Amino acid sequence: MFDRYADEPGAYPAVLDLALSNRCNLACVMCNGGLSSTIRARREGRPPLPAAYDDRFFEELDEFLPHVRRFQFKGGEPFLASENRRIWTRLLDLGLAPEVCVTTNGTVWSDEVAQFVERLRMDVILSVDAVDPERLKSIRSGVDPDRLWDNVDRFAALTSSVGARLELAVCLMAGNWDQLRGLLEEADRRDCGLSVIWVDGPARFGLLGRPADELAQVAASLDAQVTGSPPLRSDLEQIWSDVCERIRAAGTSGTTGSETARPVGEEVAVSVGRLRVEDPVDVVRDRLLQAGAVPDFAELRMEDEVFTEVSSPDWAADLALADWVGRGFDETMLLFGQQPDSIVRAQMESLEGGVHLAQVEVTAETGSSLDLLVAYVPPRPQQSTSWLIISRRAD
Ligand SMILES: C[S@@+](CC[C@H](N)C(=O)[O-])C[C@H]1O[C@@H](n2cnc3c(N)ncnc32)[C@H](O)[C@@H]1O
Questions:
Q1: pTM for this structure?
Q2: For residue 359, is pLDDT > 60?
Q3: Which of 36, 75, 289, 359 has the fewest C-beta atoms lying within 10 Å of its C-beta?
């Protein structure tokens, strides 16, 4: 992704990948409050994130802008963030013409949006996770399907008129794999690209983490879907066959097949083995003990991925776990490192049943360090409670 900017190494970054605000009008089921202000307020019941970028940031950014060859804007919803509009306006004022790519939920369309897309020749990545309107609404909560597809057409027409690219981005999950063929057909119809995002967290949405027999059925259903249907553009057919192959491989090997699901090479010194989780929290406690953990666990309960209750033994005092209540699971690594100048190193492996195990080392400024085994236990189907179990490793 970045090698093509390596030809003229300079003193300034060539690519800026910016997520300046979490302001978003949607509450997608697989997303979190760090990336959506709507989720943060409604699902997580947390106060808004304070604006992080002040006037000084934009003044300092001025020095960098002429050197940047590609900007990527994410969010939040980029077309709702005044921070982004400020940068786009500045680029135009300075007469700069870098590559600009925006990942959007496609719900915001106005003359102003159209002008930015046109004048900055923006490449647009538009997220859409289903063709069936009800399914789309159930995943991308807050979306109006008809308006969204109208906007897809508008973005398609505008990007093509200025020689920019439109790509649909599909989060592939346990709840929407059957929508992929239809989405590829939409991409074909609009002559745009499509990229697949393999969602593996929160674990309950992950497709490749499903049991092998279920994956084998998914692969068979996908084969049946395509029988007799007209072929698509060759690059889209390639995406389809790559997806089917990956699901088939995961189904037959009995592994999860995802990149993150593999132990991180030889470096993961501990494995609790493969789990078929029946009573997940108990099973995970047992397995942590077998893996050499000391039995006095710290346990954190989460509702909808927000920490709600903590039991913390004395040894965990430095982690200040009581302060984690009200914070999100997505902030876990940040919370481990909240002591000034501490360093957190983590290696994670993904186990069956959506359980994740991490080996975490927290080194404080003073040089003292905690060597931890941390297990994440996902919610059971249709439930919202998940757990983080933190244990010390025995010497
Ligand atoms: C967080 S959104 C921000 C940009 C914009 N609001 C949008 O929806 O495209 C960026 C991308 O992340 C995807 N996404 C959301 N939740 C995800 C998850 N749990 N794992 C992987 N990608 C996810 C979205 O579908 C979208 O394509």
A1: 0.75
A2: yes
A3: 289
